[in-house]
């Protein structure tokens, strides 16, 4: 994310990074106000906007499995955007040691993890066919021959918040 949660990866209802020209296009062609465009980008875009039916990746996958083209498009765009982010970061850092999946989709969707990692073998990423189905967190799901690790790590946001509060209290 950048200044706001709109930047970066597409999410359930948020657009993620977009061509800024879309804002002008929506204002002119649809006669939308700034507030309406903001509402659309925050609450009506992402998986929901592309699939037209759901912001929940589990439901979008079910729809795609039932041959819903828009749901499949939502998955394809989501995975492509994650792949682009991994590629950009690998370039900026001169390589990567690991790709970490976390939070809702990352921790729980073997299908999405596989879709994201499969085309990234040139970065040394390769999944273990047996471990990829695991939904267990804090696990290395890389194949034994992978040069770069693929990990599933629990988000533990509440632990991070508690650590930050403890640090702040100690500084008082």
Task: List key phrases describing it.
single chain; mainly alpha; Nucleotidyltransferase, domain 5; 3-stranded mixed beta sheet; 51% helix; globular
Task: Characterise the protein shown here.
- The chain has a three-stranded mixed β-sheet.
- The chain has 172 residues and is mainly alpha-helical.
- It has helices spanning 21-29, 34-43, 46-51, 57-65, 69-93, 103-108, 110-117, 157-171, and strands at residues 98-101, 139-140, 149-152.
- The two termini are 30 Å apart.
- The model has no long low-confidence stretch (mean pLDDT 95).
- It is globular and about 55 Å long.
- The relative contact order is 0.09.
- It has a domain at 96-172: 2-Layer Sandwich (Nucleotidyltransferase, domain 5).
- The chain contains eight helices and three strands.
- β2 and β3 form a beta hairpin.
CATH class category label of the domain at 96-172: Alpha Beta
Q: Which fold name is given in CATH as the topology of the domain at 96-172? A: Nucleotidyltransferase, domain 5
Order of helices and strands: HHHHHEHHEEH
Strand content: 5-15%
Gross morphology: globular
End-to-end distance, in Å?
30 Å
Helical fraction equals 40-55%
Largest sheet: 3 strands, mixed
Rg result? 18 Å
Within CATH, the superfamily of the domain at 96-172 carries the name ATPase, nucleotide binding domain
CATH architectural arrangement of the domain at 96-172: 2-Layer Sandwich
Global structural class: mainly alpha
Mean pLDDT: 95
Residue runs with pLDDT of under 50 for 5 or more positions: none
Kindly report the spatial arrangement of strands forming the biggest sheet.
1-3-2
State the total count of DSSP E strands. 3
């Amino acid at each position: 994310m950048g200044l706001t949660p709109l930047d970066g990866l597409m999410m359930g209802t948020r657009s993620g990074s977009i061509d800024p020209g879309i804002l002008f296009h929506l204002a002119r062609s649809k006669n939308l106000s700034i507030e309406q465009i903001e509402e659309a980008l925050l609450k009506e875009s992402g998986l929901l906007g592309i699939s037209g039916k759901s912001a929940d990746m589990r439901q979008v996958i079910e729809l795609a499995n039932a041959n819903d083209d828009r749901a499949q498009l939502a998955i394809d765009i989501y995975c492509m955007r994650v792949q682009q982010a991994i590629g950009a970061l690998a370039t900026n850092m001169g390589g990567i040691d690991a790709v970490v999946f976390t939070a809702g989709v990352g921790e729980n969707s073997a299908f999405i993890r596989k879709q994201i990692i499969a085309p990234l073998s040139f970065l040394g990423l390769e999944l273990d066919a047996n471990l990829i189905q695991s939904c267990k967190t804090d696990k290395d799901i890389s194949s034994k021959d992978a040069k770069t690790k693929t990990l599933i790590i629990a988000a533990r946001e509440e632990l991070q918040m508690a650590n930050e509060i403890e640090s702040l209290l100690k500084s008082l």
